[in-house]
Amino acid sequence: xxxxxxxxxxxxxxxxxxxxxxxxxxxxxxxxxxxxxxxxxxxxxxxxxxxxxxxxxxxxxxxxxxxxxxxxxxxxxxxxxxxxxxxxxxxxxxxxxxxxxxxxxxxxxxxxxxxxxxxxxxxxxxxxxxxxxxxxxxxxxxxxxxxxxxxxxxxxxxxxxxxxxxxxxxxxxxxxxxxxxxxxxxxxxxxxxxxxxxxxxxxxxxxxxxxxxxxxxxxxxxxxxxxxxxxxxxxxxxxxxxxxxxxxxxxxxxxxxxxxxxxxx
Length: 265
What we know:
Layout: H1 3-10, H2 13-58, H3 67-71, E1 75-80, E2 85-86, H4 97-100, E3 107-109, E4 121-123, E5 125-133, E6 136-147, E7 152-160, E8 166-173, H5 187-190, E9 208-209, E10 223-224, H6 231-244, H7 251-261
Parallel strand pairs: 9-10
Antiparallel strand pairs: 1-2, 1-5, 3-4, 5-6, 6-7, 7-8
């Protein structure tokens, strides 16, 4: 066989396809193996990130301390939202509320007149995080989420033991507009939340992000400055918090915890 024919065979379409497919298969195996090997590390990093956000919103985060160790001082529970009671037999740390919301056996439809956060469905259960001072509840951290302008905004709301006073708010996931909606991550906006009241004296939900600046008056204790150029994101924050502290969210749980703190049961 001549050298010219050998060269022609090596450069044939069949050989080229064979080499390309072989390289693709090898790369696919390597990528798949890397994904499998790295998945536990990625999941651990995500868990520690959410734990850090919980610690931050509770005012317990220490930059030099181990996140897992700090978080171990917070009591995690799973709540049955309809009753406000703790659910036994399910690990709150492994329960995936987002996945459960898509499982008909573990979720319910949100009635249209309650669905101000545009959830459509929510899980039957939700995790809560409780900071204790001896035998007394110091604060409660609730996971909250709902629709913004472009994304589902997910975060944590920390509340004093009275079930009404805000300790803080932090978001750990969203895709709102950079420079506009992402103001929900900025310190000067988040610093407005501590001390604000979720409900008025009659128990009506009042907390809201207003349009523009909060004006002096009796309502200012329930209000947060609006987000310049991102009114719809601000509305989304109002709606998701109002939903989750309301009767179809953590309302029954907050009532139970408040009554317990007051010695009523």
